Amino acid sequence: METEYATRLAACYTVYNGIELLEDSINSIKNNVDEIIIAYQTTSNYGEINNDFLEWKEKNKEYHYVFFNPSFLGRKDNAKFNEANKHQLLIQKARKLKCTHWFLSATDHLYKHDEVEYVKKEIKKNNYKTTFTKLKTYFKENYYCLQPLEHYYMPFICSTDVNIKYCGWSPVKVDAAIKFDKKYTYKCFSEEEILMHHYSYLRYDIENKLKNAAAKRNWENKIPYIIDQFNNFKEGDKFFIYNKYDIVKCKPEFSLENYYKNKC
Questions:
Q1: Which of 143, 146, 173, 228 has the greatest number of CB atoms lying within 10 Å of its CB?
Q2: 188: exposed, middle or buried (Cβ count in 10 Å: 0-12, 13-18, 19+)
Q3: CA 37, 60, 33: angle at the middle one, nearest 5?
């Protein structure tokens, strides 16, 4: 017997930099969701100031915005701890907007419309509290991607009943900042059912990404070397951060029209 599926789904974005991809990301899912919520910060988790998003926000008043002010506790995992708190803030905002479901997204996450609709139908039939997807990661252009797929998942559509807890629970490997406060019913979708398309290394300013990423401590002392690798990449090369993967040509799944239109 099918359970009743409330139709209020929120796409919940976290934004500091990488806004050159945000419009393409929103365009990929805006017809799947009822609300778009953006938690933004003008100070990074490492104290760097960037006000670029404020101009974008002024031009796009139709969305819901939540300001996030990171804390600086002096702990080595402070950036991830901040990210988890920001994710929980988004869930709370989704509840206030009477949404019954949400999914977290960064500016560089894109989804295919039909695959999102498929997941929504599966939730309707089975009443999953949490769902997870594999991701396809792209490098430098929309026609280069990692092979094979990375060995972790991204939470996808979840009930607003659930809460985020840093280093909490997950049935599969996910980032520490997107785990849950306890065990919930779940479904891990196969790559044939849905993929999150992760344009992780398509950026106008790769140095800004590397210096302010939540995972920076994994490469902090090699940033100049990584930038040099990125700028001089040619087909067949390896990349330090993805040294266990091949970077191969692949079919462009999204044109990234706005990203390329505005790229200098």
A1: 146
A2: middle
A3: 40
C-beta of residue 33 within 8 angstroms of C-beta of residue 120 = no
The model's pTM is: 0.94
Sign (positive/negative) of CA torsion 228, 20, 57, 96?
A: negative
DSSP 8-state assignment for residue 161: T
Which letter, b or e, does each residue of 123-141 get, where b requires 16 or more Cβ atoms within 10 Å of its Cβ? beeeebbbbbbbbbbbbbb
Alpha-carbon span 171 to 199, nearest angstrom: 25
The strands making up 9-15's β-sheet, listed across from edge to edge, are 64-67, 35-40, 9-15, 101-106, 158-159
pLDDT tens digits in sequence order for the chain, 264 residues long: 333 445 799 999 999 999 999 999 999 999 999 999 999 999 999 999 999 999 999 999 999 999 999 998 766 678 999 999 999 999 999 999 999 999 999 999 999 999 999 999 999 999 999 999 999 999 999 999 999 999 999 999 999 999 999 999 999 999 999 999 999 999 999 999 999 999 999 999 999 999 998 888 788 889 999 999 999 999 999 999 999 999 999 999 999 999 999 886
Tokens of 150: 């990375």
3-class secondary-structure state, position 191: coil
